[in-house]
Design brief:
This protein is mainly beta. Helix content is 9%, strand content 35%. It contains 3 helices and 33 strands. The strands form 9 sheets. Strands 15, 16, 17, 20, 21, 22, 24, 25 and 28 form a 9-stranded mixed sheet that branches. The protein has a 5-stranded antiparallel sheet with strand order 18-19-23-27-26, with no helix packed on it. Strand 21 and strand 22 form a beta hairpin. The termini are far apart.
Length: 451
């Protein structure tokens, strides 16, 4: 009888604790003397199988929403479907700028759908997508799925020459949506017949294909033009136009132009020429133009030529919609705020001097001053009269001069006697010699004047 060590259990098979066994016959005993037999599978001595413990889950390389786990004990692998749970994700994140819910696997890195929370979404619609091949419509949705818009495709027609991806033996008219890129084609029987110019007889609106253009007007293409009542355009739309064009707008007549082939509205693949009547109410002006207007945009059309002699206007476009003849008078920009710049030179008049701006505004206005009595303003050098003595010279003392006279004439300086005598002499000559008057008449005149 020999001792037997523990037999470890595995993930799938049971093991056994240490015991004794006969080395010849294999009979197992609980003790070394062989007194107590040990039966295979006795619970007390059994080490039960552990079972697999899978972890380290990774995304399946071939199947979406599946993952692969590895047993931590034996290394065996197991495949299984991902176990997705909802996880709140605050925006902005790599999924969206809005809050939302991500369905992610609890075990691996697999991520399922992400749904934007519509309460936080701005409902901005995404790119246009074609609704099925030859569906004739396209649509776009918001990230949260709540916003949705569906409209007709705007097809442009070109000719795909055979052999092509569309036909090995026939040329085809290829319809390509200019918005979503959706395509379908129509085989051409025989030679392709096209139009260079078509006209709406009711309105005289004409559409012409320029030379070397890829635009195709299959034979049977029609143009229809409906007069647009510009009076029905809302003030809000007019404000949008004026803001976009930075000018004051006056709207004249307009046309809603539609190009059709086999009852399908089509668009030119490249620019095409359109000629429309001007109308008798339109006055010639350098500010005349043509505006392209639809539900989404407003823009000024390029290459506009007014033929005032024939009363038409021709322009180029790559999309048919509403076209309005308009007068757009540019807004006059507000003048920049004026900053006064005063001259260093002095402006002056008889009483004052100042510095003047080009706009006429005055600064540093002061009265002339001649403190040094040199006959000029001390600041601006304006020539002026002054009775003030020079500040650096003593006043002239005239008290020593001889004073004479008195009475009604007051005190008279001797310097003025000669002037007075000359005045008296002149008056006497006038009174007695010229007028032939007497002293009596002179005294009578003086008494009369005093009264």
């Amino acid at each position: 009888i020999q001792p037997v060590a523990d037999t470890p259990a595995t993930c799938t098979e049971d093991g056994m604790k240490a015991h004794y066994a006969c080395e010849k016959c294999g009979v197992m005993y609980k003790d070394a003397n062989g007194d107590e037999l040990l039966d295979q599978g006795e619970e007390e001595y059994t080490l039960w199988a552990t079972g697999h413990k899978f972890g380290n889950w990774t995304a399946h390389e071939e199947y979406n929403n599946y993952h692969v786990g590895v047993c931590e004990n034996c290394g065996e692998t197991e495949e299984g479907a991902c176990e997705f749970v909802a996880v709140f994700v605050e925006g902005p994140s790599k999924y969206s700028k809005y809050n939302g819910t991500l369905f992610a696997c609890e075990l691996c890195e697999n991520e399922g759908a992400f749904y934007v929370d519509e309460t936080s979404c701005e409902h901005i619609l995404g790119e246009w997508q074609e609704n099925g091949r030859m569906g004739g419509t396209h649509s776009r949705t918001c990230e949260c799925g709540k916003g949705y818009e569906e409209v007709d495709c705007d097809y442009a027609i070109t000719i795909a020459k055979a052999p092509s991806e569309y036909s090995d033996i026939r040329d085809v008219y290829l319809y390509t949506c200019k918005t979503c890129g959706g395509k379908h084609f129509e085989p051409i029987e025989g030679e392709a017949a096209t139009e260079d110019s078509i006209k709406d007889e009711e309105t005289n609106v004409t559409v012409s294909v320029p030379k070397n253009s890829e635009t195709v007007l299959p034979e049977g293409t029609t143009v229809s033009a409906t007069i647009v009542n510009t009076g029905n355009i809302s003030e809000g739309a007019k404000d949008m136009m004026e803001g976009s064009l930075n000018g004051k707008i006056y709207l004249y007549s307009g046309y809603d132009i539609v190009l059709s082939y086999k009852d399908v509205e089509i668009q030119p693949i490249e620019t095409i020429e359109v000629t429309i009547p001007i109308g008798e109410d339109v006055e010639e002006s350098e500010y005349m133009t043509v505006l392209h207007y639809d539900d989404y945009t407003i823009r000024e059309v390029q290459s506009v030529v007014f033929d005032w002699t024939n009363g038409t206007v021709t322009f180029e476009t790559d999309h048919f919609s509403k076209y309005l003849i308009a007068k757009v008078t540019p807004n006059t920009p507000d003048p920049a705020p004026h900053e006064h710049k005063y001259s260093d030179d002095w402006e002056k008049n008889a009483n004052e001097h100042w510095n003047e701006c080009d706009c006429g505004d005055k600064a540093n206005v002061e009265t002339h001053a001649d403190k040094n009595n040199d006959g000029k303003c001390d600041v601006c050098k304006h020539t002026m009269q002054t009775n003030n003595p020079p500040v650096d010279q003593p006043p002239v003392d005239n008290s020593s001069e001889e004073e004479v006279g008195g009475g009604c004439f007051g005190t008279i300086s001797s310097n003025n006697i000669s002037a007075i005598m000359l005045l008296i002499g002149g008056f006497s000559f006038f009174w007695f010699m010229i007028k032939k008057k007497t002293w009596a008449e002179f005294l009578a005149s003086c008494q009369k004047w005093q009264k």
